[in-house]
Amino acid sequence: MSDLKFLFLCAHNVFRSKVAEALFKKMAPEHEARSAGTKNTVPADESEDWYKSIVESASQFGLSFEAKSTKLSQELLDWADRVIVVADDAGEVPGAEVWRISDVKGHSINERIEVIRQIKEKVRELVESISAPA
Q1: pTM of the entire predicted model
Q2: Alpha helix stretches (DSSP H) within 7-108
Q3: Cβ contacts of residue 14 below 8 Å, gap of 6+?
Q4: Beta strand pairing status for 82-87 and 32-37?
Q5: Helices marked H in 28-108 — which ranges?
Q6: pLDDT at res. 134
Q7: Which of 8, 18, 32, 129 could form a disulfide with 65 if both were Cys (CB 3.0 to 4.6 A apart)?
């Protein structure tokens, strides 16, 4: 099965959903992925320490992403074949799978790395489930 479209959501599209999107694109390049925030997006200031630590922790997994956040829209929901809420604080999205990954704002780099590991495991399970023969 190819060309499935996955939408990863978190509250503000700053870390968790972006990590899930980037990992998914690496693990399943034959499919499409996007990410967005369910609440007001937070424009990331790339010069701020908290954003630098997000970039640093993600880079340890070979991941990079833009500071620009995307707000969830009906257009994105309509685009996606599957919607996955990666956060425990993003609110309800009807029909979405929920992973309940905790927010990392204010946490140490080591705690962020642990969250990336959790997301990586969930993405790995997702990729295996869509790659398994029917």
Answers
A1: 0.86
A2: 16-27, 49-59, 74-79
A3: 37, 41, 42, 44, 51, 54, 69, 105
A4: unpaired
A5: 49-59, 74-79
A6: 60
A7: 18
Pinpoint the alpha helices (H) of 48-132.
49-59, 74-79, 109-131
CA dist 110 and 56 (Å) reads 11
Q: What is the mean pLDDT of residues 40-57?
A: 63
Q: What is the mean pLDDT of residues 68-86?
A: 93
- Position 67 scores a pLDDT of 60
Cβ count within 10 A of residue 108: 11
Q: Minimal CA–CA distance to 19: which of 101, 127, 120?
A: 120
- Which residues lie closer than 8 Å to 57 by C-beta, 6 or more apart? 109, 112, 113, 116
Contact 80, 33 (CB under 8 A): no
Residue 19 tokens read as 């990590």
Q: Which of 67, 35, 62, 65 is nearest to 48 (CA)?
A: 67
